[in-house]
Write a structure and sequence with these properties.
Subcellular location: Cell membrane
CATH superfamily: Ammonium transporter AmtB like domains
Strand content: under 5%
CATH architecture: Orthogonal Bundle
Radius of gyration: 24 Å
Pfam families: Ammonium_transp (PF00909)
Membrane topology: Multi-pass membrane protein
Number of domains: 1
Structural class: mainly alpha
InterPro entries: Ammonium/urea_transptr (IPR029020), Ammonium_transpt (IPR001905), NH4_transpt_AmtB-like_dom (IPR024041), RhesusRHD (IPR002229)
Order of helices and strands: HHEEHHHHHHHHHHHHHHHHHHEE
Region (Disordered): 456-478
Number of strands: 4
Length: 478
């Protein structure tokens, strides 16, 4: 078969393309996507009260789809494109084939792969924010919040920290895979949005049991395993550093889970499954900014701290602080993401190993990327303190940006639609909002209407107190 005119055999595989790197990058991106869909969809739908299962899961699913359209429409270029200002890129589409098939930066993958990989990170950030708003946010308000926030908040932080032209990137901040851009940002934005949306219904706030803990663990498992791509994909190449990042991720997470579990047993007498899940999440978040730039023993120490400090802020400090108790943060994203993300950023500034940083950043400059611990060890304390200072400035920047932008967005949306559901909708939950319910199980304490077409009964079993409709319709259990 002859090739079309002007088309060469190697056009689909140009000399700069590394097929192994590209295959891994697409795989890693899909693993991160699976953390959201179905991972967090399942986790959110099962960790809430039964009447909020559909709404919670659908907030995650909607965000995933909406972010993608915004991302290819303008978001990617605002985060990684040509500089508009030192903290933001110029809006532009990322759909042109000439752009998508071209080389991404100086890497060995095409722009299409990079756009996809960065999209799943942007999407999961919005879904994490949703965790603070479950059980009361007006879905129409959420539909507006997602595109506005990814446009005017996420892009600013992503460009500043991850884009080579960003001001914090140039300063030498270390955020290996999103401890700042994703977790600290989502924790602060979620907490801020929760303040503006308002609390859940009083009964829901007093008692909000999971409707299916086993299913919750399935979602949590997808989240944990998906983190292999979350941290393993950020070198953008199949490298030894990627392997180290993956192992460090799982070591820190396991240590954090076990630490949280031991604290629950020690202080409350019972090994809490939900508590262990929270410990898992804080471990994943804490190691994210450091995954490939710290040694294994540092990952264990980070796991011990991520399993104890957020535990203290959530289980002790939260109950003592009027400010923290004032805001109804449904899934405690402030503690699991803002606190754990800040902790990870600070510990990265302390434990970052210069040789590993050079493997990741591929730069010979020893004035950047040296943890304070190694600054003391090598006598380069000034560089170590500088790195710690940059990490702290980054935390402050992310907090300020997200408090301001999230507040403005919420106030603007409130002028169009209410941020919070009305009282009747809060009482009814899914059925009032979507006209659908998650579970239709007999004997579950719920009443179900008979099908209009199946009102006649063909059989009544005297031995068992149940009725079987003629054509299989649902009826109420006696």
């Amino acid at each position: 078969m002859e090739l079309p005119e002007n088309l060469q055999p190697n056009d689909a595989s140009p000399p700069w393309l590394n097929k192994g790197d590209n295959a891994w990058q697409l795989t890693a991106a899909t693993l991160v996507g699976l953390q959201s869909v179905p991972g967090l969809v399942i986790l959110y739908g099962s960790i809430v009260k039964k009447k909020w299962a559909v709404n919670s899961a659908f907030m995650a699913l909607y965000a995933f789809a909406a972010v993608l359209i915004c991302w290819v429409g303008w978001g990617y270029q605002m985060s990684f494109g040509k500089t508009l200002v030192p903290f933001l890129g110029r809006p532009n589409v990322a759909l042109d084939q000439n752009f998508l098939l071209d080389r991404s930066f100086q890497l060995y993958i095409p722009n299409a792969t990079m756009v996809y990989f960065q999209f799943v990170f942007a999407a999961i950030t919005l879904i994490l924010i949703a965790g603070a708003l479950l059980g009361r946010m007006n879905f129409h308000a959420w539909m507006l919040f997602v595109p506005l926030w990814v446009t005017f908040s996420y892009t600013i932080v992503a460009f500043s920290i991850w884009c080579p032209q960003g001001w914090l990137f140039r300063w030498g901040i270390i955020d290996y895979s999103g401890g700042y851009v994703i977790h600290l940002a989502s924790g602060v934005a979620g907490y801020t949005a929760a303040y503006w949306v308002g609390p859940r219904a009083i009964k829901d706030k007093e008692r909000f049991p999971p409707n299916n803990i086993i299913l919750m663990l399935a979602g949590a498992g997808l989240l944990w395993m998906g983190w292999t791509g979350f941290n393993g994909g950020d070198p953008y190449t199949v490298s030894t550093d990627a392997s180290l990042a993956v192992l460090n991720t799982h070591v820190c997470t396991a240590t954090s889970l076990l630490t949280w579990l031991m604290l629950d047993i020690l202080f409350f007498g019972k090994p809490s499954v939900i508590g262990a899940t929270q410990g898992m999440i804080t471990g994943l978040v804490c190691i994210t900014p450091a995954a490939g730039v710290v040694q294994g023993w540092a990952a264990i120490m980070m796991g011990m701290l991520s399993g104890s400090i957020p535990w203290y802020t959530m289980m002790v400090l939260h109950k003592q602080s009027r400010l923290l108790r004032k805001v109804d943060d449904t899934l405690a994203v402030f503690h699991t993401h803002a606190v754990a993300g800040s902790l990870g950023g600070i510990l990265t500034g302390f434990f970052a190993e210069p040789k590993l940083c050079r493997l990741f950043y591929l730069v010979p400059n020893w004035e950047h990327y040296i943890g304070l611990a190694y600054g003391f060890k090598t006598g380069r304390t000034t560089a170590g303190f500088k790195q710690m200072g940059v990490q702290l400035v980054g935390i402050l920047f992310v907090i300020v940006v997200n408090v301001i932008t999230t507040s403005i967005i919420c106030l603007l949306i409130s002028l169009i639609v209410p941020l919070r559901l009305n009282e009747d909708e809060l009482r009814a939950g899914d059925d009032a909002i979507h006209g659908e319910e998650a579970y239709a199980l007999w004997g579950d304490g719920e009443k179900f209407e008979n099908s209009k077409n199946n009102s006649a009964f063909d059989q009544v079993d005297d031995e068992f107190p149940s009725v079987i409709p003629k054509n299989g319709g649902e009826v109420e259990m006696p």
